[in-house]
Amino acid sequence: MNLRIVLSSLLTALLLTAFRADQPAAVQLLRLRCELLTNPEGIDATAPRLSWELSGAARGLEQTAYQVLVASSPDKLAADEGDLWNSGQVTSGQSVHVRYAGQPLRSRTRCYWKVRTWTSQGATAWSAPAAWSMGLLNYLDWKGRWIGFDRAFPWDKEESHARLSARYFRKEFQAAKPIRQATAYIIGLGLYELHLNGQRVGEQVLAPGPTDYTQGVKYSTYDVTSLLKAGPNAVGVTLGNGRFYAMRQNYKPYKIKTFGYPKLLMQIEVTYADGSRDIVKTDDTWQGTADGPIRTNNEYDGEEYDATKEMPGWATAGFDAKSWLKAELVQEPGGTYEAQMNENMKVMETLRPVAIKPLAGGKYILDLGQNLAGWLRLRVQGKAGDQVTLRFAETLQPSGELYVRNLRDARVTDVYTLKGGGPETWEPRFVYHGFRYVEISGWPGAAPTLADFDGRVVYDDMPTTGALTTSDPTINQVYRNAYWGIRSNYKGMPVDCPQRNERQPWLGDRTTGAYGESFVFDNSRLYAKWLRDIEQAQKADGSIPDVAPAFWRYYGDNVTWPGTYLTVADMLYRQYGDEQVLARHYDSMRRWLVYMGQNYSENGLVTKDKYGDWCVPPESEKLIHSKDPARNTDGVLIASSTYYHMLDLMRGFAATLGKTNDADEYTQQMAALKTAFNQKFLNPESCQYSNGTVTANLLPLSYGMVPAEAEAKVFQNIVDKIMVENQGHISTGVIGTQWLMRGLTRYGRPDVALRLASNRDYPSWGYMAANGATTIWELWNGNTADPAMNSQNHVMLLGDLLIWQYENLAGIKSAPDAPGFQRLEMKPTPTAGLTSVSASYQSVRGLIKSSWKQDAKRFSWNLTVPGNTKALVYIPAKDAERVQEGGKKAASAPGVKFLRQEGDRAVFEVGSGDYAFVVK
Fold first, then answer.
1. Nearest 5°: phi and psi at 367?
2. Where do the H-state alpha helices sit in 404-523?
3. Measured between alpha carbons, how far is residue 262 from residues 26, 71, 146, 169 in Å?
4. Which end of the chain is more exposed for a tag (fewer CB within 10 A), N or C?
5. pLDDT surpassing 60 at residue 80
6. For helices 473-488 and 750-758, what crossing angle results, to 10°?
7. From CA 171, how far away is CA 235, in angstroms rounded?
């Protein structure tokens, strides 16, 4: 039963009865989600969590109770029969992550649900209906066998730059009776496209999400009822290589994992109108071929497609497959079967190119005007056998040719062979590129035009949640560059870059990056999945790699990169209210912490550091790896202070989970480490840590390790280093930049933070923008750096810039003691040189807005607080009497409560609603 059709019909029925409900029409329940997904198919959470938003025009809307109904059919839900779960009226303000507590959920169960609430403004009607379905929860639910071809074919090449063609599998079957419901469950490794009766199933691309396939493999579930019919049917699956058949074969096997040849497990379960069932499953009755149009597909090197070898109708009934081979039964990959609970990738935007220029030799350079990750779609006409070759790059040489040295040995080349006979449209299936420019050669006929091409932007199908603009054009451009860089590097996991022969999920790149990104994109499911990848990569002794999934075997045993495991868990808890993620990963995180403490401690300090403050300016390949003590921050200082921070995070996790003994243990460890740290690194006279780099002073200050009497001087040393020695420029690398902007603002120098954010000369984010960047560079000097390391599309140097923009500039922050935006702490930081900031954020509880302007005479601030939420608002005013809201004194305005005066800020509490504050 198609969920969209069922829910549409059910919504109509509910609307017809809604007028009888006891609720003011202005109060609505919106965005019903299950595990933060909208109407998901095939989940494997047996006690899924349900969330909704409250919206109302009146101020101060609060939920006081809720009732959830979950039914096994739309009819029962429409009749208010919760045969799976009727929570009854629960006195609670909880509207996020309400855990299902009904009948046990089994494989394939389809669940329909709705909610109503009681609020400070009366009871609501029932919400519009929503739904979810359960996946295959048990190994024995899978009835098929793994099929594939565990070998190369004569036209393939298994050298380092391997060329392995796509595999095509098909099966015809009969549906003997009218169909009531049909569901497909599929694991296609490395990548798959599913077709039924000639139609592609779903809009996903590059599916499933990448994992360490020996540890876990992801399956997807699709409602395919509308694609099947009574009588003959056919299913077809194309398999690409992805990360399963690795991009480099027989090359550094001690480092690079490869898992074998592509393989498939799937089944289609058909329920007929009379209640009987059939299962179409993979086995050796399927047919397969590798002699199709996709001749090679390699994430680093590109895809080659020969349209003369297309097989029209291969996924429809009646196709002549006499030349096809019998599918072979192959060994399963070894990993646990898991429902994919994060979004698949999708073509999220289509860009029109901005310029095309001819080069010598019949070549052309196409400019998309934007560095992006995805591919090119072309429209071409020529004769059979004509070949169009596309090469991709981020930048050009002075001659106008592609600059590809920074791609290392990635060949990044797509080749399309025309079939002839009319206009042809093509785009690749199983690769992506990081690029702005494309070299086109072999174009048949007249010169190509802009209308012949589209740039296809590909990343995980997650909504954009944030928007931010300021009066400073540099900050705005850097924000836009960050937006493009982040989306470029969401590829079923967060990767470091999308263009060269790397594209790996380095942990250290996202230590605070994930936090800042969460304001721009709803990345909750991606990072929950990534934590599972990290957990699966952990060794039995507790060691965590620097890259997870561990496609590269990098177990360096440092603190800063693996520590991302804890900081991302903390982000998911604080930004999305996900306490479950702490419970799930607590033991693994503790095991890592114990491992590091036992194996790398000396004189009370943690000694192991691998990367230092990575990419401190000025950068070069030599300096990045330099151990020059005058330039770099002491590795033991970095490791020990970061370990202290990890202990602090674990203390908080333990307290949240009720593990009081553990929390006490962490407190004791922190005290001992703090003492040893300050004895080793703090100069009591100068109040300078170690050699006095910004990072050396900033880390202990940010982590709360500095003695109270030394805080002011330590901070002043940081400011002096920036403003005097570095002439108002950044001098931190990946580690220090994670705390830089917030630290400067927290200790009273937002002007210095603004200076760093708005600089346009080297080194700065603005320098990148001023030199043509449309994303974020890997290095501060990415336009002049050694080609061995100068990706033009990285995000690791963003540090805490986005966090600072949203929390400090705009004032949108979840209160530290109220995770998941249960309560807001709205404390913007107006600073000389910045006259306005406007931001919005679709939080897990609803839309938050903050827009302020200032001049010499007044400060005005419009803000929106979502339903079922309160906010503490800190207004820059030395006297609360000067603050007005809606033309009245703020203290007497509806929904506004004056709390206290904190120095030059008046603090008010407000409930949900729209507010307009003015200070004259």
1. -115, 120
2. 473-488, 513-517
3. 54, 39, 10, 11
4. C
5. yes
6. 70
7. 5
Domain that holds residue 65: 36-134
The alpha helices in 600-722, defined as continuous H runs, are 621-624, 635-656, 660-681, 694-702, 711-720
**In-domain check, residue 19:** no
Residue with tokens 């061995």: 788
CA gap 168, 596 in Å, rounded = 47
pLDDT at 920: 87
Instruction: Compute φ and ψ for 876, nearest 5 degrees.
Output: -65, 90
What average pLDDT does range 666-677 have in this prediction? 98
- Could you count the other beta carbons within 10 Å of the beta carbon of residue 717? 23
More confident site: 9 or 387:
387
Assigned token pair, 275: 């209640």
What are the b/e assignments for 298-320, b being 16+ CB within 10 Å? Answer: bbbbbbbbbbeeebeebbbbebe
What CATH number is given to the structural domain containing 276?
2.60.120.260
**Is the pLDDT reported for residue 17 higher than 70?**
no
Closest of 782, 809, 808 to residue 796, by C-alpha: 782
For range 592-613, the mean pLDDT: 96
DSSP state of 232: E
Q: Does residue 764 sit in the same domain as residue 885?
A: no
Six token digits for residue 168:
């095509």
Q: Give CA–CA dist 745/45, Å, rounded.
A: 41
In the three-class reduction of DSSP (H, G, I as helix; E, B as strand; rest coil), residue 109 is classed as coil
CA separation for the pair 506, 493 (Å, rounded): 10
Joined together, the tokens standing for residue 643 give 């370990």
Q: Quick one: residue 422, left, alpha or beta (phi over 0 = left, psi -120 to 50 = alpha)?
A: left
CA distance 49 to 417: 49
Regarding whether 640 and 534 lie in a shared domain, the answer is yes
DSSP 39-79: S-SSB--SS-EEEEEEE-SSS---EEEEEEEEESSHHHHHT
Any residues with CB less than 8 A from the CB of 540 and at least 6 apart, and which? none
| C-alpha to C-alpha distance for 85 and 777, rounded to whole angstroms | 51
Distances (CA, A) of 317 to 182, 270, 314, 438: 17, 17, 8, 39
What is the distance, to the nearest Å, from the Cα of residue 234 to the centroid of all Cα atoms in its chain? Answer: 35
Residue 834: Cβ-neighbour burial (10 angstroms; 0-12, 13-18, 19+) = buried
Q: Would you mind telling me the total number of residues written for the chain in this entry?
A: 920
C-alpha distances in Å from residue 19, one per residue of 13, 25, 124, 125: 12, 9, 11, 8
Tokens linked to 427: 């785009």
8 Å CB contact between 373 and 489: yes
Q: Please write the tens of the pLDDT for every residue from 344-374.
A: 999 999 999 999 999 999 999 999 999 999 9
**Is there a single domain that holds both residue 267 and residue 333?**
yes
pLDDT, residue 2, reads 60
Residues 837 and 742 in one domain: no
Phi-psi region of 396 (alpha: psi -120 to 50; beta: other; left: phi over 0): beta
The C-alpha R_g of the chain, in whole angstroms, comes to 29
Of the three residues 291, 323, 342, the one that is the final residue of a domain is 342
pLDDT in the model for residue 103: 98
Q: What percentage of the chain has pLDDT greater than the value 90? A: 93
Q: Per the structure block, which two tokens stand in for 831? A: 């600073």
**pLDDT tens, residue by residue, 414-463:** 999 999 999 999 999 999 999 999 999 999 999 999 999 999 999 999 99
Closest CA to 583 of 598, 572, 595, 594: 572
User: Is there a contact between 561 and 610 (Cβ–Cβ < 8 Å)?
Assistant: yes
- Amino acid making up residue 598: Q
Tell me: pLDDT of 484 over 90.
Answer: yes
Which amino acid does the sequence have at 273?
A: A
* 598 Cβ contact partners less than 8 Å away, ≥ 6 residues apart: none
Q: Are both 271 and 415 inside the same structural domain? A: no
**DSSP strand E in 324-442: where?**
325-326, 328-329, 336-339, 345-351, 355-359, 363-380, 387-393, 395-396, 402-403, 413-417, 424-426, 433-441
